[in-house]
Amino acid sequence: MSESHSALDQDELLHLAIEATRRGEHGAAISYLKEGIVRFPKDGKLAYVLGAEFAQIGMYDKAEEEMARAIELDPSLFTASFQLGLLRMTLGKVDEAKLAWSALDTLADENPLRLFKNGLELLAAEQYQEARSLLEQGIALNTFSPELNRDMQNVISAIPAADVDQSQGITAGQAWLTAYGDSDKAD
Fold it and tell me: What is the span of the domain harbouring residue 157?
């Protein structure tokens, strides 16, 4: 068998990594992705998915590094820009999150990623009702990622109600962490 038929290509490695992630096999997913990056170092998608996998297992520094590298390799990876900003927002790096999200300003006003970004920026500015409205609009228009809709719904659930004293403000990162802080606990 020729080498071209025995070696996995970029798409195959990416697919195998995604399937491993779905099965909860993070080590296998990371191995596929690292192999892909060694063989195809200019592939932004592989770097982005590796960053997402690192974030999934709590290795946030590596996640941030890989997502930033993915965007550098392919600035059109808008999902990577959004996720990098979201990761940074979660880590309390609001200014760095906004920098990562700046690429999303080129998207149409009604693009779900842009609506989510704008909503989270308003949340960071403690403009809760406006944030909730934009996040809800983003969910209504997002047809490409049910997982992202679920994540944004978790953030909405953590936003203080209109009648809450806003002097006791909550940051976007706090809302994000609050939304996920209890998700691992048994009911």
Answer: 93-187
